[in-house]
Structure formats: structure tokens, C-alpha cells
Amino acid sequence: MGKATEPLPVKLIMPMFTRYVELFEQAEEVLAERFGPVDYRSERFPFTHTDYYTEEFGPGLVRWFISFERLIDPGELAEIKLWTNALEEKWAEEGKRRINLDPGYIAPAKLVLATTKNHGHRIYIGKGIYAEVTLVYRGKDFRPWPWTYPDYQTKEYLAVMRAIREIYMQQLRQEGLLTRRSG
Known about the structure:
The protein is α+β, with helices and mostly antiparallel strands. The protein has four helices and ten strands; from the N terminus they run βαββαβαββββββα.
């Protein structure tokens, strides 16, 4: 029989997109008040792999990733998603969101994203929120699944995930946490 253990703390990431790029700085400020200092900022990428959001957000979307210095318990993800959903609503105009905040985390072996949308490959984590293992870390790199969003399979996004994971792994080493099973 396996023994229940506490999970390793994980690295909170915040992928976001908008066509109002001034919202990135505003969002970072509010998110940092809640989750602590930001320790990674990606370059900004055109968000062109889907037109799913065009009706709500309009054209010309831009994607940006940040991560936070403070590690979190992975069990907090549902609450974080609910909080970011409320923030999206607060900044909405005429019932349409102006920014999309997609909280997730990097653990040693995966990238997990939170969503409100159920699907066969997603696990319910409470409070109307589901989690998806979007990428697996295997063979010294992130690998996509059949369901991985096309943009998360690009070399640019994978480079971002590798950079954030390296920061995270360094934190685990500094805190002496890599001796625990992290798989």
C-alpha cells in the first residue's frame, strides 16, 4: 500500500493574452500583490494559433507569460483560477473580457493548466475547475500530448516553459527539496 505524502511545492505561472497590451503591466501589478514578486517575464508573442477568442476579444491578440518567485501548493490551483476569473470580469467591458488569465503550474514532471471547461483528459479539482496536464517533462524536455494546444507545442512556448522550469528546479535545489520523490 502506498503512503500518502505532501506534494512538492510548484511554480505558479500566468499565461495571459489580450489585445490591450497596457493590461499586461496592470495585471502583473495586481497578480504580484497576491502571489508575490515576478521572477520571469517572457517576450510577447502573437496569439495566432486559434480564432476561438476573436469574437469576444477582437483581433490582434498578444500572449505573455510570467511566473512567480513564491512556490505554491498545487492544491491551491482551483482557488487561484476562481480569483483570476473574477479579475477578468472586473476588467471586462460590455460583458466581454479584455484579458484572459490562465493560471497553471510547473512541477518537475509537467505543466498543468487550470480551466473551467471539462473534457475527457481533464481532472476535476473542485469549485467548478478542471486541471489539464498540458505538457509532460520527459527525456530532458517538455513533450506535448495529443490534446496539447498547438501554441504550447511551438518552439517559442517550449523555450519559455524550459526557462521557467530551470528557475523552479534551482529553487528546489536551494531549498533542499529535490531529495524527495518529485515524479
